[in-house]
Amino acid sequence: MHQPETPEIPQEVDRVVVCAYGLYIPTRLLERSLWLNVHPSLLPRWRGAAPVERAILAGDEQTGVTIHETVEALDAGPIATKEAFEVGDLDAGQVFARSAEVAARLLNDVIDSPAFEPQSEEGAIYADKITAADRELNLDDPVDAWRRVRALSPHIGARASWTASA
User: Are strands 47-48 and 34-39 parallel, antiparallel or unpaired?
Assistant: First the structure.
């Protein structure tokens, strides 16, 4: 995976595919080629930096993958295709792996001639970056603790502290 601080296209290309690219793509580049973004959520739900983690934390029963046109607004471009799958007891690493499998197939289906439908603003939720506070387990709430462990496993991790009583 290559993620330059400033994206450049060295030559004229018809398509550019991005995935998990968290930096601004200049308008001049978006205008030169069709940019397709592979996003691991069912847009418009969970636009932004941590869609997999936020879906698990929220207790979403389903998540999925959306292939959409990259536009200036974050994860707001028209949608070429998307596919849902069950979250169940999967952790974030397993959801990312499943998303990669789905994304490869979906991208293969649409890359040559994508047909886009506008993305609704209804149901749009932003998936904020994970913070230190998001990593804290509330051991008094086992459902939340279980979701938090799964959402942050294996790449970020969660933590708790307690004091033993005498």
Answer: unpaired
pLDDT recorded at residue 164: 77
Q: Which residues are within 8 A (CB) of 53 and not within 5 positions of it... i.e. 6 or more apart?
A: 92, 127, 130, 134, 151, 152, 156
Q: Which ranges of the chain does DSSP label H, i.e. alpha helix?
A: 27-30, 51-58, 92-110, 142-151
Q: Is 22 exposed, middle or buried (0-12, 13-18, 19+ CB in 10 A)?
A: exposed
Between 165 and 157, the higher pLDDT residue: 157
Q: Looking at domain 15-151, which of 3.90.550.10, 3.30.428.10, 3.40.50.12230, 3.30.830.10 is its CATH number?
A: 3.40.50.12230
pLDDT in tens, 112-135: 999 999 999 999 999 999 999 999
Please count the residues of the chain: 166
Report pTM: 0.90
Tokens of 28: 């001049």
